[in-house]
Design a protein that fits this description.
Catalyzes the transfer of a geranylgeranyl moiety from geranylgeranyl diphosphate to both cysteines of proteins with the C-terminal sequence -XXCC, -XCXC and -CCXX. The protein is mainly α and about 270 residues long. It has 12 helices and 4 strands; from the N terminus they run ααααββαααααααββα. α1 packs antiparallel against α3. The protein starts with 8 loop residues before the first helix and ends with a helix. The structure holds zinc ion. Zinc ion binds next to loops.
């Protein structure tokens, strides 16, 4: 793809709507256990592109409510550790402390315990192998929502995060891995929250994301020339949003939702 490529927004909208309708396809059946995640990725992308009206809201709400079972999910606020886990027979591990905190109230004591615990772990991020920027996002997002970002050494963490930018402009999840579009979100959101996003070459990252588009059929892949999927389509558009790409709605880096939604639902503005 030549320099100056643009976001193929209309094609991405068509791709998302098509995926949403293909409930009997092989891909849809093997991904059934994360279909609710898929709905979040698809709907948020449509909203970021100002095309939420492409789906029938009442139909989506009915379907989501049909997934609800009063005894299927419970939240454990574990004793003194201050961590949060979702438990249910079929629930996926809850990876986002930020989203958990955002959707429920916690006592201040628990938040403070968790913040101090995070501070100690933050200092170890540079030396622990296997730590990914997804985990960094969870911790930084949780601390941001708890108003406790002052526990982070911003320069130290910012340095580790900006080192994630590879020669091709994309970001990886940890050292010596290939760049992947989804880390555009995990890394950029954390850098924004600690006010170090200017350490990333945004122009090169934008080009990397745009090069991962299927410009004919829509959708974004993890890296150039790979097959597209709804997950990377969402994280690609979300990454562009964080870089203020024209025509894409701004997102809140901690809540991972469009800013106007956060203002309306959480902050009641
Ligand atoms: Zn990925």
């Amino acid at each position: 793809m030549a320099d100056g490529a643009e976001l193929a927004a209309d094609q991405h909208v068509r791709y998302i709507v098509t995926v949403e309708k293909k409930k009997d396809s092989f891909e849809s059946l093997v991904m059934e256990h994360i279909r609710l995640n898929g709905a979040y990725w698809g709907l948020t992308t449509l909203d970021l592109l100002h095309k939420l009206h492409a789906v029938d809201a009442a139909e989506v709400v009915d379907w989501i409510m049909s997934c609800y079972h009063p005894e299927s999910v419970q939240v454990d606020l574990e004793g003194t550790s201050g961590t949060i886990r979702m438990s249910s027979p079929r629930s996926a591990p809850c990876r986002s402390s930020a989203s958990s905190i955002g959707s429920m109230s916690l006592t201040l004591t628990r938040l403070l315990i968790m913040s101090f615990d995070c501070k100690m772990r933050m200092d170890c991020f540079l030396v622990i192998s296997g730590v990914k920027s997804t985990l960094v996002f969870c911790c930084v997002g949780a601390l941001a929502i708890a108003g406790s970002l002052h526990h982070i050494d911003r320069d130290l963490l910012g340095w580790w995060l900006c080192e994630r930018q590879c020669k091709d402009g994309g970001l990886n999840g940890r050292p010596e891995k290939l760049a992947d579009v989804c880390y555009s979100w995990w890394v950029l959101s954390s850098l924004i929250m600690i006010d170090r996003v200017h350490w990333i070459d945004k122009e090169k990252l934008t080009k990397f994301i745009l090069n991962c588009q299927d410009k004919e059929n829509g959708g974004i892949s993890d890296r150039p020339d790979n097959a597209v999927d709804i997950y990377h389509t969402y994280f690609g558009v979300a990454g562009l949003s964080l870089m203020e790409y024209p025509g894409v709605k701004p997102m809140d880096p901690a809540y991972a939702l469009p800013l106007d939604v956060v203002n309306r639902v959480f902050l009641r503005k």
